[in-house]
Write a structure and sequence with these properties.
The structure is a homodimer. Chain A is α+β, with helices and mostly antiparallel strands. Chain A has helices at about 55-75, 115-125, 200-205, 295-300, 315-325, 325-340, 345-350, 360-370, 385-395, 420-425, 435-445, 455-460, 490-495, 495-505, 520-525, 530-540; strands spanning about 100, 110-115, 130, 135, 145, 155-170, 175-185, 190-195, 200, 210, 215, 230, 245-255, 275-280, 285. Chains A and B meet through helix 14 and helix 16 of A and helix 14 and helix 16 of B. Chain B binds a DNA duplex (24 and 24 nucleotides) through strand 3 and helix 4.
Chain lengths: ~550, ~550
DNA sequence: CCATTCCCACCTAGGTGGAAACCT
DNA sequence: AGGTTTCCACCTAGGTGGGAATGG
């Protein structure tokens, strides 16, 4: 009954410190805007996550920990059926939402995973990351907030992806389980992705969120090293037999010491000056095609670039029915659909023609992006739990392609989390605001356009891992929508001195305006608009210094 | 009759050398991908230019030189009518296509302006650059190839924009001339745009084309300095009376010496270790709206982002006529319009639905993007000259808004060019291939959808300046289309070792394939796809070491 | 009147998952 | 048969000039 997947073990994100010897004053200010800009605030479909919730926080922690443990066993015995066993992880009490410095001298450097709520959502299901030859971005992208660095010291920030174990995994669709499919045929070569803004001063790094948005995963070995400039090879996949290898990622803060060198194909230098922080919830499994439909749904629901697939197949029937009687419904339908459903609102605001199209066009629009759309936000219960949420995302899709994948195991990196910080995060003002998306789903439950949920899928939800999250309230700022998140009031959240400039320099001054869909604001200067990103970045979205006023999904773990 | 505009004086692009003291080995490899990635290969609508031609090369040089001289006079006397006078420039023989090191110790550092052909095209007319509050990119973007640096030395590459004089200018539409409108009310504060990849080793800089694609021009003072991260304020425009101030740009190569500092709001440090290279053809006038319709047309014709405006107003009548009898024309119209007209082809290939839309939709599509479209590519004469080309771009557009603008004057920076290198560039294999876009225009001349050309506009074309370019053959690689250019064979032009990786890492392997529209290939990893840019950059498009195999429009000037 | 600003349609560039094709 | 690749529709993000609106 209780459907259990191989609980992916927590891998920690590591951070090394590696300082550039007095790079004089000339910071690489301008370069920042770079692709992998420090700033983001984007894709935090992420941030809009729902697990930041109040009293359940610590619980989530625990769930993750046990999760991690179970994996270790799995990996060791290789038994395909023993996956649900609960093991103890090598890590002490590794909070799922904290950064654990490894290998460095204490100090008080702290690394906070941004959007950890979303990471946890994925982690509960079993995070999958697609890899392609051309390189595929990670969806919850790695985004961290760093504090406690020496403002005047130069640092490299790097991230690597490390295999959790040496197993190959396989996802058995009919049982919705992970199974060990043997040993990986080759070890994953060490790959280090150095943040493009490196080196930069501690001040620069701390001023904004450090994002690895543009990092890509690939199974292309290329001509070995160096080339996958922005691409990391998480799994060799040399043999077609090895579709996916469980990998984990490390996030590093490296203080640059004279004479030291950082290479993308070498392991991060250990020792003093280098700290590694690991985030268990960032463990993922590389696949060439999604195995778990729940992952697919969550990706679609949260990744802005997959918006085209949202709600597909869910309330299609409902909408088709509406379409049938379109002539009668038109007035109310328009009001309800275009104005109340987020995402549609965006189109409406940016293209008025949308309203004036032919009926056929309108119908198309209705049918496509709205099929399966949960419904109207700002309505419905706020008490939805993780479980019920997954409920909806796990509706069966008969056209699932090929099912089989892997689960990662823990890589001991001595994590240590202080639940206190979690409490702090939970106490942020954002906690007051319910998550619009959750409301949507709730509405869906009410019958607007839900589909029947098979027992098998229900069972899938009751595995031991996610229970830690169950019952958590979902919280997010009022502007959060479809995974986009930013502070309730940009002016209040951002450092006031630079806001005006950022806003004016922005595209069409929409920043301070009321963005109908809530996407415009967050999208600015975040994704690929590298340079603009620097214009507000952390100033607009970040929370340098104190986390109290920050993003909804930021989870902080104080190490001091 | 001979319509003369104030010949804009040549400003040189400067390059300073400023080395980072042994930044150890850790290059900022990965950061490169950054927005302002070194790589481009993009927007070289640029490269697809047509002046690379054979025997006319040296002539162009001369034309530019005299051009520059004339400006100086203008600026000094302020007479609106003496603009066509030919003066001697402060620069010795300043080739329009070379880099002149200034203020540095000799060595043999060389800076070559990429896409100088296009720059010259604009320069002949009188380059205008739009400035907006949010910041506007320069269209021919600054892109240079640097050679002669110490591979192991760390350098900053910077660029600044300097006013040519202290005058305000005004464009008189009826006479199509530039007139001095008084003195600028305030000096332009020194602004330095440091390339985001700075600092980097000489090897890094020389390995690829250094692009300032993402640089933006703005008239927004913001809260003074620092903020316009990637934005340079070319003109104060403090008073609405000062719409535009002639400015010039400098390109700098700065060797980082310990203790030195580079600030965006300070002038570039002079002295040894700092070299400045100036390119006369990069002089431009900042405007808030285009004044000269020829500039508008050239921008539209060459800037991929303005493709939507291509041919607008030219063959509109022709298409409207077609639309009138749409019911009868439909079959042939579709064949002719969507498949033969570039730009439409793209849509067709990427969205088959396009073909299956309602008639109304189709008509709309026809009317909008096709208005004035020249016609079918790959047909027509290849012998089009500069003059005749401008012919077409200067067709009158009754709805021209506000006409008035400026012309810059020369800023003496001791340029010196060696025509030999130009010859080398002209001798590249690319010379064999005609430019697709030119064919289009030729077709237009044949009457497909051309408009009557008024005498006044014709006269505009016969000013003394462009004659140097007249008669040049237009050359471009076979893959060049709509201003996109890359070597005839990526494999051949790029360093073989890394090509395979670059190609495979590319998006959907379209790189080596036949891209229907010709845009996919070149667009990859260039514009904002920062990180990807590093994947092929110079390896794919550049010509590290020898210019012989390089891009079609590269013009090299050896200083040694 | 004229320079500037703002909004818009129309592009480029590229990220997403689905599904068919491909390969083994 | 199953993993992988390729192509596709559909998005986001943002660059472009036109033209109306704005403002002196």
């Amino acid at each position: 009954m209780a459907e259990k997947r191989r609980s992916p073990c927590a891998l920690s994100v590591k951070a090394h410190a590696f300082s550039v010897e007095a790079l004089i004053g000339a910071e690489k200010r301008r370069r920042t805007a770079a692709e992998d800009a420090l700033s983001p605030g984007y894709e935090d479909g992420t941030d809009a996550s729902d697990l930041t919730g109040s009293p359940g926080g610590p619980r989530a922690d625990r769930a993750c920990t046990s999760d991690r443990g179970s994996e270790a066993e799995c990996a060791s015995d290789g038994s395909p059926e023993s996956e649900d066993a609960l093991l103890e992880s090598p890590q002490p009490a590794a909070a799922a939402l904290c950064a654990a410095p490894v290998g460095g001298t204490g100090e008080e450097t702290r690394v906070d995973l941004q959007g950890s709520d979303l990471w946890k959502r994925f982690h509960e299901i079993g995070t999958e990351m697609i890899i392609t030859k051309a390189g595929r971005r990670m969806f919850p992208a790695m985004r961290v907030k760093i504090t406690g660095l020496d403002p005047h010291q130069q640092y490299y920030i790097a991230m690597d992806i490390i295999p959790v174990d040496n197993k190959r995994y396989r996802y058995v669709y009919h049982s919705s389980k992970w199974m060990v499919a043997g040993n990986a045929d080759s070890p994953v070569p060490p790959r280090v992705y150095i943040h493009p803004d490196s080196p930069a001063s501690g001040e620069t790094w701390m001023r904004q969120v450090v994002s690895f948005d543009k990092l890509k995963l690939t199974n292309n070995e290329l001509d070995d090293q160096g080339h996958p400039e922005t691409i990391i090879c998480p799994s060799p996949l040399r043999s077609f037999f090895t579709p996916c290898t469980s990998t984990s990622r490390g996030f590093h803060v490296i203080r640059k010491e004279c004479g030291e060198e950082l290479s993308p194909v070498r392991a991060i230098p250990a020792g003093e000056g280098t700290r590694t922080f690991s985030f268990p919830e960032t463990v993922f499994t590389t696949v060439t095609a999604y195995q778990n439909q729940q992952i697919t749904r969550l990706k679609i629901d949260r990744n802005p670039f997959a918006k085209g697939f949202r709600d597909s197949g869910r309330n299609r029937m409902g909408l088709e029915a509406l379409v049938e009687s379109y002539a009668f419904w038109r007035p109310s339908l328009r009001t309800l659909t275009f104005e109340d459903i987020p995402g549609m609102a965006k189109q409406e605001s940016t293209n008025n023609e949308f309203y004036h199209n032919t009926d056929k066009e309108t119908v198309f629009k209705l049918d496509q992006p709205c099929q399966g759309r949960y419904s109207v936000p700002n309505k419905g219960s706020q008490e939805l739990t993780e479980g019920s949420e997954r409920h909806l995302t796990s509706s069966p899709r008969p056209h699932a392609p090929h099912l089989s994948r892997f689960a990662p195991s823990a890589r001991p990196t001595t994590p240590a989390a202080d639940p206190r910080t979690l409490s702090i995060a939970l106490a942020t003002p954002q906690s007051r605001f319910p998550l619009p998306e959750v409301r949507q789903r709730t509405r869906a439950k009410e019958g607007f356009c839900s589909l029947p949920l098979p027992a098998s899928q229900l069972g899938y939800l009751s595995n031991p891992t996610p229970q830690g999250y169950a019952g958590l309230r979902l919280h997010t700022p009022p502007y959060s929508l479809y995974g986009y998140t930013f502070p309730p009031s940009p002016r209040l959240a951002a450092s006031p001195d630079k806001m005006a400039a950022a806003a004016t320099a922005n595209h069409q001054s929409a920043f301070l305006g009321s963005s109908p869909s809530g996407t415009l604001t967050d999208s600015l200067g975040v994704l690929s608009g590298g340079q603009q990103g620097l214009l507000f970045d952390s100033r607009t979205l970040g929370l340098a210094g104190s986390q109290a006023g920050g993003g909804a999904s930021q989870v902080t773990a104080h190490m001091g």
